[in-house]
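Deliverable D5.2: sample structural annotation.
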Amino acid sequence: MHIIVCIKQVPDSAQIRVHPVTNTIMRQGVPTIINPYDLFALEAALSLRDIVGGEVTVLTMGPPMAEDALRKALTYGADRAVLLTDRFFAGSDTLATSFALSQAICKIAEAFGPPDMVFTGKQTIDGDTAQVGPGIAKRLGLLQLTYVAKIASLNLDAHEITVERRAEGGMQMLKTKFPCLITMLEGTNEIRRGSLDDALRAARSQIVKWSAADAGIEDLSKCGLRGSPTVVKRVFAPASRAVKAVQIDTADKLLRDLADELIAAIFARRPALEHELAFEGA
């Protein structure tokens, strides 16, 4: 079995700052990490490989520094890493990104064998669109299972996979044939700690680096800014609130008294709300 996992190197959201004048993200000095959701996808792929055998290829698109994320993925146990890097990809939105990655997946299929499954995280923490995974599936004609919480079973003989998918109001049990694309939810598994052997192998491994031409991408108008119909107009940090929170002392008070005090405090801050509620109840 051959599984491809698409990952992305993103800025650590806990340390992102916004420039006070230009309102743009300040990336200088901000460490980068593997998109956390992608780690759950990687672990799901590695777990399947450990059970049924095969190979896991990790793919990312980004600048040369994205090689660090790929080496990290190799330390977890991935077999191969491919970096899609070219100046033509700069400024790509989700449409252009899904195009470039789908083309790279076709190239991987030619070079290392067609994939049975493609895994991605449900979304990235820097974009939060959850569009790239489904976009890849659409371009490649793959069946897609999104927001998957658990891989329930895998039947190699029937080429079927059964998953639990989180949906509004509960869980869905879905079965489909592969090849397919799966986007994994957070908290669906426990990320393994890479072994010393994998860490040493990752340090020695040769990352496969492809330009747009190497990946067989001929129509560059679909890449980068030229292939991106969406543009970020402005990035800004929310203004801090001037009103301080009110703390209610709960010591030696009954729940009914606390509830009355809380309601009174809310109405004191928002007098119109009391009038609206009284009008609705009339």
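Annotation notes: The chain has two domains: 2-222, 240-282. The first helix runs from residue 36 to 52.
The annotation will be released with the project's public dataset once the embargo ends.
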